[in-house]
Design a protein that fits this description.
transport; Thioredoxin-like_sf; electron transport; 4 helices; alpha+beta; about 120 residues; Glutaredoxin-like protein; Glutaredoxin; Glutaredoxin-like_YDR286C
């Protein structure tokens, strides 16, 4: 009987932990801002500096277009980096447009809060 109670307690603890993780993840799910870049890329470095005040509002994912596995992105953006996608959708290129970024982040945050 003690073994059963111990297992039940362990199951309750792990279920509660999973519940907390799910609640936490749903509240903190941030949009993904993808930066298509290469090395060197002074404009990309400049863009990352401009993005610093917003970094708590998205997850920055960098894609090096010169890597073999990213050849499709290289063909598409080789003359346009930096290029940004927000949650997989094209957002901007060449320079950070802070008003466009702010508008799209607010839109996503409102959707997240409402639903």
């Amino acid at each position: 009987m003690l073994l059963f109670q111990g297992n039940s307690m362990q199951l309750a603890r792990s279920s509660f932990g999973l519940f907390l993780r799910n609640c936490s993840a749903s509240k903190t799910a941030l949009p993904v801002l993808t930066l298509f870049t290469k090395d060197p890329c002074p404009l990309c470095d400049e863009a990352k500096e401009v993005l610093k005040p917003y970094k708590h509002r998205f997850i920055l994912q960098e894609v090096n277009i010169t890597l073999p596995e990213n050849s499709a992105w290289y063909e598409r953006y080789k003359f346009d980096i930096p290029v940004f996608h927000l949650n997989g959708q094209f957002l901007m290129m060449h320079r950070v447009n802070t008003s466009k970024l702010e508008k799209q982040l607010l839109k996503l945050e409102q959707q997240s809060a409402g639903g």
